[in-house]
Amino acid sequence: MREIRFRAFDKKNKIIVNVGSIEFTDRIEGRTGCNVFVDGKTTKDSYWLDDGDFELIQFSGMRDKDGINVYEGNICIIDYLGGEKSKGVIEFKHGAFVFQSKEDPSKQVAGWQMIHQCKNLEVIGNIYETPEFLK
């Protein structure tokens, strides 16, 4: 079974933070959103992200060739088994994580193939903090 983990892109501060818990409704104040813990340290580092001010980013359960955790929105370079390289984004589509090539949209690596390709996958950034890496 894969590990369930999330990060969140804080749209106001334009940073990615670790999610300590997901509380879609704050029972005390009645607001909707997400409670996050910056760097996952203590409750002093915790703050609330209001609904619409964040985007949840799910961990794929996989690591790239250097051991870096692979999340949705990661910009990656994949070295196909035939030696061809492509740059693309990790997306969650139809119940599975896929590598979607941005250079050739017809190329997609999904499901069990992703697990085997991760030894040839390198995370170089993400669409939130480093979108210029797609160019």
Topology of helices and strands:
Blueprint lengths: L5 E5 L4 E4 L14 E5 L8 E5 L3 E10 L5 E3 L2 E6 L5 E9 L2 E6 L6 E3 L1 H6 L3 E6 L9
Antiparallel strand pairs: 1-2, 1-5, 3-4, 5-6, 7-8, 7-11, 8-9, 9-10
Describe the structure.
The protein is mainly beta and 135 residues long. It has two domains: 6-55; 62-134, Roll (SH3 type barrels). The protein is 4% helix and 46% strand. The strands form three sheets. Strands 10-9-8-7-11 form a five-stranded antiparallel sheet. Strands 2-1-5-6 form a four-stranded antiparallel sheet, with no helix packed on it. A two-stranded antiparallel sheet has the order 3-4. Strand 1 (6-10) and strand 2 (15-18) form a beta hairpin. The radius of gyration is 16 Å and the shape is elongated.
Question: What does this entry show, briefly?
Answer:
The chain has 135 residues and is mainly β.
Keywords:
135 residues, SH3 type barrels, mainly beta, 2 domains, 5-stranded antiparallel beta sheet, 4% helix
The number of helical runs is: 1
- In round numbers, the mean pLDDT is 80
CATH class of the largest domain: Mainly Beta
Query: What would the CATH topology of the largest domain be?
Result: SH3 type barrels
What is the chain-wise order of helices and strands?
A: EEEEEEEEEEHE
Q: Which sheet architecture does the biggest sheet show?
A: 5 strands, antiparallel
DSSP helix fraction:
under 10%
What is the number of domains? 2
Proportion of β residues?
over 45%
Radius of gyration: 16 Å
CATH superfamily of the largest domain, by name, is: YopX-like domains
